[in-house]
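G., the chain you wanted modeled:
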Amino acid sequence: MVRTSSPGKVILFGEHAVVYGEPAIALAVTRRFKMNVRPRDRGKGHLVDGHRMTAAHHSYFKYAVENYWDGGPLDIATDSEIPSSSGMGSSAALTTSLMGALVELSGGTIDDERERIARQSFATEYGVQGRASPTDTSTATMGMGVLLAKGPMDGLLWHVERGGAEWYIHRVDVPQLNIVVGFTGIKGNTGELVAKVRRFWESNNFAKETVADIGKLTMEGVEALNAGNVERLGELMDRNHQMLSILGVNHPKLQRLVEAARPHSYGAKLTGAGGGGSMIAITDEPERVAKAIQDAGGRPFIAEIGAPGLRRDGD
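Predicted structure as C-alpha cells:
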C-alpha cells in the first residue's frame, strides 16, 4: 500500500486569465487531500472508497488510471480536508495524490518524478475539464508558492504548452501573509465556468482585453509580493475581483463575503473558478475577518500558506 497527500491552494491573482496563457500566482495551504492506494488481491476492476470506479462518479481517477497505469486493479481510499468545488484545488490535490501513488507503486519515487507527475496531472485535468491551466496541479505537486508566467524568470521549474497556450512555471517565495478563506458552501463547476468565460472571450473583444488586463495586474502583484507591499497587494486583489466579476464568474454570496471582509482587510477577492466556491482576504485581523465572513453566511478558516507539496506519507 502507498499513502500520499497533496495540498489545496488559493489563487492570489490570475484565475481564468491563466487558461489563456496569462500569469497567475498560487499558494499552497495546509489542508490536504489524502489517499491510500493498494493493488486489489481479489476481484476485477478498480474501487474508489469501496465503490466501483466509473466515469460518472470518478472522472479524474478513471482518466488517470486508464492513461497512466499499466498494472492490475486498484483499491483506492480517500480522505479530503479540502471541500470539493470550493475553489481550493481539490481535484488537483486528488489527481496529484493519485499520480504520486501510481509512480510509487511502479517502483519510482515522487521526488524523482515531480515534473512528470505535474505534467500528467495537468493532462488529466485538461482531459476531464475540457480546458484548464497547470496552476492547480503545479501547486499541488510542488507546494509552497507557484508563479505561472509568459516567459522564463528566476526560479523556473518547467515549461508547458497545450491548447494554443503556454506557461513557464516557477517557484516563488512565500510571503508572510494572514489569509482568511471564506467558503460560500456553493459548489462551483470549474468546467462549466471555464467554458462560460471561453464563450465570452471568443465573442467579445472587451473580454479579451479584461483577460489581458488580469495578466498585467498579476505581474504587478509579483512586484508587490517581492517588495512586501501588503497595501498594494490588497489594492490589486480588489481590482482583480472586479475584473473577474466582469468575466461573469462572481456570485451574489461570494460578493457578500467579499464585502463583509473588506472593512478589516487590505483586499479581498474570489479565488479559483468562482460561481460560488471561496473568497480570500489579506488582513492584520484574521479573527475579526473570519467572524465577519461567518456573520455573512460563509464558512471561514484562517489559512496557513506555504504548505509542502505532494508527498508519500508513512505507510
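The chain has nine helices and 13 strands.

Shout if anything looks off.
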